[in-house]
Amino acid sequence: MKKIVKFLILMILPFIFYGCSLQDGDITNTEKIRVESNIYSEDDLNEGIEVVFKYFKKEYKGCELLNIKYVGDDKNTYDDWAKRNNKEESIAFISDFIVHDNSKVQSLNEDKYTNWNWILVRNKGENWILVDNGY
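Predicted structure:
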């Protein structure tokens, strides 16, 4: 019985270490490029960026977020996203990031991606929800 337990432990350990070694998406040196808004407050913008950061850390393992920027009031052509999601407001950011060779994101090649869109929606007074990202 002891041999079976030791064998099972030895078989499971590599999977545990492999799972623990997956590096989160790196946001540590992300530059927040400031863009003034007449629609959204600084808090609104920062709350949206934090939603993107949380998602990036979880879903973009082995990637490094270089910068993020609000697309601006005059370029906010994302109102249809709010309507499609039964929400009142939408906001969009663009960013650049690097996919490193150890990335666990299978749909992306090792490369630098620029002007990647992040689209969020909400009702007034609620938290932002990320509804889409990509080109």
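Summary: The chain has one domain: 23-134.
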